[in-house]
Amino acid sequence: NAQYFFNYDASGNIRTKYTLFWNVTSFDGASKDVYTYNAANKVLTYMHYQKVSGIWAPAGKSENTYDGSGNLMQTLYYDYSGPVPDTSARTLFAYYANNKLQSQTEEDYDGAGSFVPSSLDSFGYNGTDFYTFDETRDWNADSNRWDKSSLETRRLNGANLPDTIYFYGVDSATNDYVVSFKTTWKYNANNNPVETIGVLDYMGNMIELVHYYYYYEARWDLGVANVAKNSSFTIYPNPANNELNIKSKQAIAGNVVVQVVNNLGQVVMQTMLAGSDNMKLSIAVLQSGSEQVA
Q1: Peptide bond into 239 cis (omega under 30)
Q2: pLDDT tens column, 145-157
């Protein structure tokens, strides 16, 4: 149903991604994503295009700004109603001194040169930098304040694994947080979860909704035995210009994901074919070069 094609820059970053969908008799370009990067290989800009009447028309854009530590500080979003981008929103990020994310603020553009707050996510960590809470607040323009929306807190054990997670809603009468759901976790000596219990607060009554047990199989395999091949393939012609034939000694049931990989190990094409003993892969849009099929 879909094919994906990728182009890379000299640093191995994805420069362009094409998405094609099946259109009755052939694959047709549906969207194109274009990325640019800074010297640290972090995304600077992202452009999204859609094909309209055979022409790639810009549909959306985002621009990222980073601080000296490489932390993402701001993402600006743009919409397109024509060739010129219209500012639509932005996301602001703040960090603790140890570069852990402290808050994320969503703001909408008002069309008059200003951004209006929409939502605020705040994050907290314990002394060893493990995530312990996430609070969301919504902007109340009438009262000019941040109103509580939701809260998640995590109590961690000595291995910094959550043993209790609380999810809170807001009591409309008091504007205070109240527990709406709680999960508890138990672990074995290898820090694998062995039991999870989920409890819902329904009108003041704690009701157990889920209760899971996890079991593990101990293995001491020191190597991997040779495994007989289930299928072998013949791919021709080689070289090919427009289409590859993929023949199997036995019919393959279901769908098959096929990737074309260049000499650097980068995926330049990915598609799904209906399984059979003779599949055809269209490669007409690929640039000339040496690739492998997986």
Answers
A1: yes
A2: 999 999 999 998 8
